[in-house]
Automatic annotation (TrEMBL):
It catalyses: (6R)-5,10-methylene-5,6,7,8-tetrahydrofolate + 3-methyl-2-oxobutanoate + H2O = 2-dehydropantoate + (6S)-5,6,7,8-tetrahydrofolate. Its main location: cytoplasm. 3-methyl-2-oxobutanoate binds at D45, S46, D84, K113. The gene is panB. Keywords: Cytoplasm, Magnesium, Metal-binding, Methyltransferase, Pantothenate biosynthesis, Transferase. Binds 1 Mg(2+) ion per subunit. The lineage of its organism: Bacteria, Pseudomonadati, Pseudomonadota, Gammaproteobacteria, Lysobacterales. It comes from the Bacteria. This is 3-methyl-2-oxobutanoate hydroxymethyltransferase. The active site is at E183 (proton acceptor). GO terms for molecular function: 3-methyl-2-oxobutanoate hydroxymethyltransferase activity; magnesium ion binding; methyltransferase activity. Its EC number is 2.1.2.11. Its cofactor is Mg(2+). One of its GO terms (cellular component) is cytoplasm.
Length: 266
């Protein structure tokens, strides 16, 4: 397979080909994603919850993100690798650049993801862009804002909040973001944002109209402790291996079979 690239993802949006993305935290899972032909592997700071057992993503450090990113990079060959900037790694330009140097320069990610559209985030996107570091923005239910939201709650349900998500999406695109992850919003808003943006919009609980879909790999294997999140689906159920489950996810995203209405919000 030819390597997946950032411009290649943009071409996929233009051609109407769905983008398949999953999280990975180690080399073995990275290899499973690679073998199943997943387009993008995300070393998400969700590892703070599903690997480390914390209640939120906030305790994850840059050292930990770099450690997992190095491991995942060793398992990949053609899959595009994106790493999350952990909480407060974007507190100023110097820290943002340091984090990109660690995750992209040393650990092997092709791009970094950061949450929100606050003024300092727009600056960070532009600053990284000026250094030719591709950026994935992340809006909607941004987990690093869990305390401000008062829990992991669907965002953009009221008219004003929905308009704000759309204007934030246009702002991160203008600042130079190459991709957007849109999480935990009504399907109608997912569709609005996807059509308004030139850059690919990858949804998680954001409806079927997004340009691609991402899930936490342990959620879609049904091994995350606790109740399955509504926006996820257990792809291992009735199948014989992790590889088969991941391949089924890829197929269902590409065909539009996932997400189904029961995985979506309104
Ligand atoms: O950390 C993560 O896994 C994420 C995805 C859910 C988009 O940010
Ligand atoms: Na994340």
């Amino acid at each position: 397979r030819k390597p997946v690239t950032v411009p290649g993802l943009r071409a996929m949006k233009a051609q109407g080909r769905k983008i398949v993305m999953l999280t990975a935290y180690d080399a073995s899972f990275a290899w499973q994603l690679e073998a199943a032909g997943v387009d993008v592997a995300l070393v998400g700071d969700s590892l703070g919850m599903v690997v480390q057992g914390h209640r939120s993503t906030l305790p994850v450090t840059l050292d930990e993100m770099a450690y997992h990113t190095r491991a995942v990079a060793r398992g990949l060959s053609s899959t595009l690798l994106i790493a999350d900037l952990p909480f407060m790694a974007d507190r100023d330009v110097a820290h943002t650049l340091e984090a990109a140097a660690r995750l992209v320069g040393e650990a092997g990610a092709a791009a970094v993801k950061l949450e929100g559209a606050a003024p300092h985030i727009l600056d960070a996107i532009a600053t990284l862009g000026a250094r030719a570091v591709p950026v994935c923005a992340h809006l909607g239910l941004t987990p690093q804002s869990v305390h401000k939201f008062g829990g992991f709650r669907i965002q953009g349900r009221e008219r004003e909040a929905a308009d704000r998500v759309l204007s934030d999406a246009l702002a991160v695109q203008s600042a130079g973001a190459d991709l957007l992850v849109l999480e935990g919003v009504p399907s109608a808003l997912g569709e609005r944002v996807t059509h308004a943006l030139e850059i690919p919009v990858i949804g998680i609980g954001a409806g079927p109209q997004c340009d691609g879909q991402v899930l936490v790999v342990y959620d879609m294997l049904g091994i995350t402790p606790g109740k399955r999140p509504k926006f996820s689906k257990d792809f291992l159920a009735g199948r014989h291996s992790v590889g088969e489950a991941i391949a089924a996810f890829a197929e269902d995203v590409r065909s539009g079979a996932f997400p189904a209405p029961e995985h979506c919000f309104d």
